[in-house]
Amino acid sequence: MLAVRLHAPRLTSRGLATIASATKPPPSPSPGLHWPAVVRPSVNEVKHGRLDERNLEKAVRHIHQDGLVVIEDVVPHTDADLLNAKMVQDARVLQRMGEKGPFNYNQGNLQQDPPPVAEFFFPSIFTNTIATQVTSAVLGPRPKWTFCSANSAMPPLPGASPQRQPVHSDADFAHPTHPFALVVNVPLVTMTPENGSTELWLGTHNTDISYQEGAHGERASGRIKEKHLRDRKAVRPPIQPTVKKGSVVLRDLRLWHAGMPNPSDQVRIMLAMIHFAPWYRNPMRLQLGEDLKPVLEELDRQGQLGLDIPVDWVSSEEAIKTYLNRGFGNSYDFDQAP
């Protein structure tokens, strides 16, 4: 369904039985493997919204090996531009809230939801069939889409110093040792080090919470301990890649990463949808405007959805009125019920 990870009710299962996580350090990569793998679909693959067997294998392999893969040229730039124009306006509103705004770790990295109504819903972005083909191949058929938001790297306000996030994992709880959730990131502009592209620590998705500090629910939970950062840097240093507009980035939820400063004068927005495995018992739900219901139903009827989407439907007027005033950061619980 559309692009809005709802203010859904969240249930915590902190302290309840979850699948034990591994304690082995992340494996060493092949020599010279420092940058994200990129899949470049053919014109025919993009036209039909499906990768061929070889490209699908490559995408799945690198999600397992590196915890991340980039698929280029699958989102029309016109769709990205239209959504970006609206979300940049919203980002400036949120930035002016200062300490009361929805920032993660620092005010230069905002979490903001896209407008959850049909006017701004682009299937090429929110229900991209190639992205869902890959997440289904890794997680199982009809993954559950229960989170939709964005990370906005903001230009610093006058007099403010750019700040980076600490290196962290979004899986700040005892989690399965195999893939259970993939983040579908869609940059609305080309991401570069000059506008705050995310720092990535490829191959770190096989670690557990013993590598982290900060309890779940704290604003800065999931931080990776300095000792482990030093050890990992000696094996495979972090990267801050350039990712082209029109791309989709698929990232294992467990992967270490960090939001970086945006010293430019332009807002850099990267959407983040989470697909959970169909067996994963996360209780979150999206909240969407009712005018999206027939859109999603038609996509499903045409076989263009491929997702299970738990939704709390509200009027479109209510959705527009409330979507910038939702939870953020660790107010969302990505754990599963026992």
UniProtKB/TrEMBL annotation:
Residues 17-36, 213-233 are annotated as: Disordered. It comes from the Eukaryota. InterPro entries: Fungal_Metabolite_Diox, Phytyl_CoA_dOase-like. This is Phytanoyl-CoA dioxygenase. Transmembrane segments: none annotated. Residues 215-233 have a biased composition (Basic and acidic residues). It comes from Hypocrea jecorina (strain ATCC 56765 / BCRC 32924 / NRRL 11460 / Rut C-30). Pfam families: PhyH (PF05721).
